[in-house]
Amino acid sequence: MMRRLASGTMMATMLPLALAGCATSGSGISARPDTTPVPTTIRIVAGLDRVVGRDAAALISLFGQPDADVREGNGRKLQFTGAACVLDAYLYPKGAGMPVVTYIDSRQPDGSPIDRASCVAALTRRDGGK
């Protein structure tokens, strides 16, 4: 019985050592830290800064009267249409402040995609909001 107890204790002592030997040292994972830069802020694309964060009055000053003004809850969508594109500007309040543009979407009149900044530039050149 003593021999059986000794071999059981020996087995319990050896098992963790045996399992530790299963770990591989050449796993292929580099110990070097990742040096890829991580952006800390979202950068607004040039041209969109004229729209994002602006209120309705600023958009009307820039583009003229909207072709559509849709309100739903505390949100508002202003739509501006020109020969080159259609721009939807979505305004939502920030805290207790005035609603401002938080997102914009653009498309060509036939529905195909167009760059948002290009659409903003095209609409700022339209005559009298049309």
Specify the structural class.
Answer: alpha+beta
Q: What proportion of the residues form beta strands (DSSP E)?
A: 15-25%
Give the low-pLDDT segments: 38-43
Give the number of DSSP strands.
4
Please tag this protein with its features:
4-stranded antiparallel sheet, 130 residues, 3 helices, alpha+beta, 4 strands, 22% strand
Describe the structure.
This protein has 130 residues and is an alpha+beta fold. It is built from 3 helices and 4 strands; from the N terminus they run H-H-E-E-E-E-H. It has helices at residues 2-20, 56-63, 116-124; strands at residues 68-72, 75-81, 86-93, 99-107. It has a 4-stranded antiparallel beta sheet with strand order 1-2-3-4. It starts with a helix and ends in a 6-residue tail after the last helix.
Sequence-ordered SSE layout with sheet pairings:
Elements: H1 2-20, H2 56-63, E1 68-72, E2 75-81, E3 86-93, E4 99-107, H3 116-124
Can I get a quick summary?
The chain has 130 residues and is of the alpha+beta class. The protein contains three helices and four strands.
